[in-house]
Amino acid sequence: MDILIKGTIVPVTGPEDVIRDGVVAVRDGEIVYVGRLDGLNDFSADKIFGGAETAVLPGLVNAHTHAAMTLFRSYADDLPLMKWLEEAIWPLENRLKAADVYWGTLLACVEMLLGGTTTFADMYFFMNEVAAAVQESGMRASLSRGLIGYGPNAGEALAESREFILEWHGKAGGRVSCMLGPHAPYTCPPEYLKKVAETAAELGVGVHIHVAETRQETAEIRKQHGCSPVELLAGCGLLDVQVLAAHCVHVSPGDIEILAKKGTAVAHNPESNMKLASGIAPVTDLLGAGVTVGLGTDGAASNNNLDMLEEMRSAALLQKVAREDSMALPAYTALEMATIGGARALGLGQVIGTIETGKRADLVLVDLRKPHFYPPHDVVAHIVYAARAGDVHTVLVDGKVVVDAGQVLTVNVETVLDNVRESARGLVGKPKERSLL
Amino acid sequence: MDILIKGTIVPVTGPEDVIRDGVVAVRDGEIVYVGRLDGLNDFSADKIFGGAETAVLPGLVNAHTHAAMTLFRSYADDLPLMKWLEEAIWPLENRLKAADVYWGTLLACVEMLLGGTTTFADMYFFMNEVAAAVQESGMRASLSRGLIGYGPNAGEALAESREFILEWHGKAGGRVSCMLGPHAPYTCPPEYLKKVAETAAELGVGVHIHVAETRQETAEIRKQHGCSPVELLAGCGLLDVQVLAAHCVHVSPGDIEILAKKGTAVAHNPESNMKLASGIAPVTDLLGAGVTVGLGTDGAASNNNLDMLEEMRSAALLQKVAREDSMALPAYTALEMATIGGARALGLGQVIGTIETGKRADLVLVDLRKPHFYPPHDVVAHIVYAARAGDVHTVLVDGKVVVDAGQVLTVNVETVLDNVRESARGLVGKPKERSLL
After folding, report:
1. Distances from the Cα of A122 to the Cαs of A52, A63, A181, A202, A417, in angstroms?
2. Could you say which of A274, A277, A417 has the minimum Cβ distance to residue B374?
3. Is some CB atom of chain B closer than 8 A to the CB atom of A431?
4. Which tens digits make up the pLDDT trace of A210-243?
5. Total tally of structural domains belonging to chain B
6. Distance (Å) from the alpha carbon of A119 to chain B's nearest alpha carbon
7. Could you tell me if A79 lies within 8 Å of chain B, comparing CB atoms?
């Protein structure tokens, strides 16, 4: 199948790299040409997408989420973190069945695809169902079973992770990859983290973990271990494997140096950090130190959407106001974080994240003929500062068209919505006053 | 014309006030009934809008913008404030012609209507063109000609303002009201502000002004006048008339006390304050002191969209992270600010801002049958934390349907886009690399 994409190409290979009236040629899922139409030879397209007022971007990468938590979207908000977890989220999670996770994940996939996200890094449980949903949706994902290292199930969970990785890593035509998912330094003891690092090295996979999300966590780790969460992980040898560290809100200059030296990637989640009042990650400093930074939405219970276009904007705006510097985190840097930054953070930097020949065709077409994109002074600024999920017209993953004209082609969305509603009804008790369940 | 709106009614009369399977009856532009269908008598609808999975909200109020600045959307970003103003924005503004302002404002109206904003407070110039665009679009607006009190045109500008107010205040079927628009304490000397206050009292209109937007402004005023911007305005007698004070980022507890005592309303512009790195307004403190707070986008050059649904979310998230308190600015409070708060701030609290009998029918219908609104645990949290402009299905202003099925009915959008592009081409010199002009 030969597909031709027309539009203004934003390849994310450099701040000024924009090809007006450009084309991307896709053959068997691979990008075989990027440039002006008159430079394309020996290509007869079976299908053509895009047009004059279309922006073509690399698929967005959501570098940290818990997809099935869409089930808890708007279930509990405006609460202190521990009350939110202990009284709202955890009791519901305890009731989750495999089918709930399947439908919740499929809902997340549909939402993400409609918003131009083609790849995500997930940490949750019932991961076979998560992988099945990813496979069905046509998305690309890096999946990790969440591991709690304290408690009786720690060993079993690691064994399950191993099985899951052996079954799914590299499957769904290469769209599914796996990581190990130790939850956090405060839920996994050092010996456990060592075991995780050994297992990761043995299986040749990365590690996805929450790090330094809250001030309390950092204080607690210091009290218990006399060091920072990052230092603790480095001490366990965990950072000697490829690590995707979510949050890193409360990291010191010394921590940042360690992250840079170890090649640890960070997933920045500005809206979740804002909503849960966790704090503001020092993204400018991380980038300045050479740390790879991706962008994530976190779960829908703390966001409450999975809109990566919006997340780019929030990342840029938050960093500017935090540093009182309007030049901090420019539009193009936010776009990089949401594409090639996330791709690298997931170990997929050679496969996706930019529009370059040889990469897999994960592409997003945005319709620019809209009032909020006029006049078209700057396509990158428009995408970062003005766009939203609903502006996405067409999405390709691995060269396959999965969204067109704003409609998902791989999954019956109505069925997903109905099943999610049923799952939610089964999970909650008496609905609240403002619930429409 | 009798119109019946069906859906989940969110009247914004109290945090838990949600009418599931409710109706709003509209007769001759006025809301005549809000409640369950079986309580509605003697009403035969000419038209019916909404349905089972529709949320019905009061029209959103954008309490501070410069509508025609859509012309500069994404023209200059990621720059320090003074460089942005002096090298990018002001030179373009100097070239603006009346027709540019007309098309730029009409574009803003179209964008706002499509996002559920039915009323806005504007400060700009060529105000007759602004008023004409408002009239044509079907929106409601409070308009003020921006006044620079230093310089040779100060007196003339005030005289023009008077003419504009006499011509337009209460016109367009009552949809257009006017204010005086002294730009800011640092661009208007105290004697000028006194004159403005006297003129406002004489004409029976309010005053729209920028106050304490940046740290530099506050320092400058203190250096020149030995007091804060708020104290300066109070000293001039300006706060004795009805004042809409935009920004109030850098206000002290003493300033807040003055604002509360004088009944001065504040327009909070979180995204603009973030993008320009101005700082974080103490909204929770302002509300706690009893100050009326509305929400605004500011101009599209510093935002870069006019999406009030997104602005609500940014307001809530920003305040939470700034105070490290996840309970700061809950969803419902953000919704209040964007509706009745803004209405009160514009002096329209008796006319619009809630869904109550006797008020004018400014109504927004949001389609909830979408992945990012599932499952429907909490309609208010969904609107504030998950919704975006593109979710708006139908909009009524003053009982007239101005948007339906996501299409503007009052204005030819294609014509607006084409004219805006022409205006932008005329304004800028050589387009930048990433421009699609």
Report:
1. 36, 8, 9, 21, 21
2. A417
3. yes
4. 999 999 999 999 999 999 999 999 999 999 999 9
5. 2
6. 17
7. yes
Q: What is the pLDDT of residues B31-40, one digit of tens each?
A: 999 999 999 9
| B282 belongs to a structural domain | yes
Q: Average pLDDT of B166-195?
A: 98
Q: Does B148 touch chain A (CB under 8 A)?
A: no
The span from the CA of A153 to the CA of A150, in Å, is 8
Share of chain B above pLDDT 70, in %: 100
On whether both A398 and A326 belong to a single domain, the answer is no
Same domain, A248 and A396: no
Kindly state whether residue B341 falls inside one of the protein's structural domains. yes
CATH number, residue B9:
2.30.40.10
Q: How far is CA B391 from CA A117, A124, B7, B307, B379, in A?
A: 19, 29, 15, 11, 13
- Residues A136-183 have pLDDT tens digits of 999 999 999 999 999 899 999 999 999 999 999 999 999 999 999 999
**Is A209 part of any domain?**
yes
- Residue B6 has phi, psi (to 5 degrees) of -115, 145
Q: Is the domain of A388 the same as that of A269? A: no
Instruction: Let me know whether A68 and A54 are in one domain.
Output: no
Residue A317 and residue A394 share a domain: no
Phi-psi region of A148 (alpha: psi -120 to 50; beta: other; left: phi over 0): beta
User: Which residue, A323, A345, A367, sits at the end of a domain?
Assistant: A345
User: Are A114 and A230 part of one and the same domain?
Assistant: yes
Environment class of A288 (CB within 10 Å of its CB; exposed 0-12, middle 13-18, buried 19+): exposed
Same domain, A372 and A312: no
Predicted complex: ipTM over 0.95: yes
* pTM higher than the cut 0.90: yes
pLDDT at A431 over 90: no
- Structural domain including B365 reads 2-58+359-406
Q: Do B310 and A388 touch (CB under 8 A)?
A: yes
Instruction: Compute the distance between CA of residue A158 and CA of residue A149 in angstroms, rounded to an integer.
Output: 9
Contact list, B304 vs chain A (CB under 8 Å): 381-382, 385-386
Whether B234 has its CB under 8 Å from any CB of chain A: the answer is: no
Based on the fold, state whether residues A300 and A376 are members of the same structural domain. no
Q: What is the structure's pLDDT at A31?
A: 98
Six-digit token string for A309 = 């276009």
If you measure CA to CA, which chain B residue comes closest to A276?
A: B326
Identify whether A425 is part of a domain.
no
